[in-house]
Amino acid sequence: MEFQILSHAGLLVKNKPGKSLICDPWLVGSSYWRSWWNYPPVSPALINSLQPDFIYLTHIHWDHFHGDSLKKFPADIPIIVPKGNYTRMKDDLFYMGYNNIIELKHGERLQLDDNFFITSYQFWIFLDSALLIECDGVKLLNLNDSKHMGLTLKQIIRNHHPIDFVFRSHSSANERLSYEIVDEPDAPVDDLERYITEFAQTAKATKAKYAIPFASNHCHLHKDSFHFNRYIQHPVLVEEYFKQHHIQSPMAKVMVSGDSWSSETGFNISDKDWFTNREQLLADYLQQQSESLEKFYKQENQATIDTQVVADYFEQFSASLPFFIKRYFKRVHFTYVLSAGDSAKYIYQINVSNGRVVELPADTKLDHATYPIQIHTTAFIFLRGIEFKIFSHMCIGKRVFYKVTAKHKRYMEALNLVFNAYEYDLLPLRRLFTRRSLQSWLMRWREIILYMQFVRDKVVYGKLDIEKYLK
Q: Same domain for 22 and 89?
């Protein structure tokens, strides 16, 4: 068998007869409104060589479920997705024109060819998944962004031990770095070191032979997010962590786009160094993509908003909320500050409890005593959040900036969780009790126990100790 790293989270696996599977093929262009780009770039020759027999998509985030990349493959190619409580992945694929969608239940094993099997393992309230690949006697655990731990990780290890390769993300892909605590400017908003630490802890728990830093091989090129490159925990930092902590098993191996391993010849890794002189290489990359970026900047600057569209969306959103969530947000207002070029600006004050939207004058003085929760982004991104029902995606791109007081930060964090629940079909609450949802959660009973353990730890000890669930 052979596997090859394709991109940020793209993985190709082939068996000896030549059947092939691709996971999460983001191969071309950018993601999250020109913010995320593959790093290093994917070779056009590599892209053109791909003729997979199957595709597996771990979850719906755009750096994994990438529309422009999927369009490179025929409409009848089998696309495999996790079968969770909601149908959005399948529905979106049908909408895009794909007609051969296979849903795998949690723990379900599917045979792709002789000596070629995959098993899907779901995790997290807002559906993510890992994929265990068995190919010609080699076992690869593609954890990707999923944070399996405790009983859920033990289930995978028990079912598939020994594991040869484990792949997992190792850098921030959330909104934490996008917070500015206006009355506590020195307050930390994220612990960057923990991402690599948890990568190492998870890798050791799997007892795999090799650990591949994966699903974090990206950079930021948009002018709003380029400065976030300094926070990315790239694969060489993971390798250095393993050396500093004398972790020899599993062995950390840096592999980037184009690198491969086969059961016959072992590793085939390019000698191109993408990380020692990373700042210059990023500057070169930015220059190479300048025409595409400038074209997009013009498109963003031309966005205009119809206030009625905003009002209709939040009226529907508010109607889906249960009473206790409405009560929590009753006296809280969220102020969206939306730019469209240098001159145009839209300001909306929104109460999600009742769905009321008030447009404020563009020259409103946005002091934090009056407006303690401000969300700054572009009109273009805000409209896409409404159009595609993806407010839960907006913060991932590092192009939405939260300026909040320390007292009110919790409300913004809570709203992002509620957006996720709304867009992952957990709201209205009746959706939790569909046959599909109940079946999904019954299969994932180990995960429910894990959440109960989290609650116990928080109540008894006042904090979550993730490390103990990764032993």
A: yes
d(CA 292, CA 63): 18
Which of 267, 247, 3 has the alpha carbon at shortest distance from 139?
Answer: 3
Which value, in Å, is the radius of gyration of the alpha carbons in the chain? Answer: 22
Residues 230-279 have pLDDT tens digits of: 999 999 999 999 999 999 999 999 999 999 999 999 999 999 999 999 99
Report d(CA 409, CA 402) in Å as an integer. 9
Query: What pTM did the predictor assign?
Result: 0.96
Mark which of 227, 260, 290 sits at the end of a domain. Answer: 290
pLDDT on residue 344:
78
44-58: burial string, b at 16+ Cβ within 10 Å, e else:
eebbeebebbbbbbb
Contact 334, 373 (CB under 8 A): yes
Question: Do 207 and 354 belong together in one domain?
Answer: no
Are 263 and 382 members of one domain?
no
Report how many domains make up the chain.
2
Q: Please report, for the domain that includes residue 387, its CATH number.
A: 3.30.1050.10
Could you list the residue range(s) of the whole structural domain that residue 401 is in?
307-428
Q: Which residue in 380, 379, 390 sits closest to 345, CA to CA?
A: 379
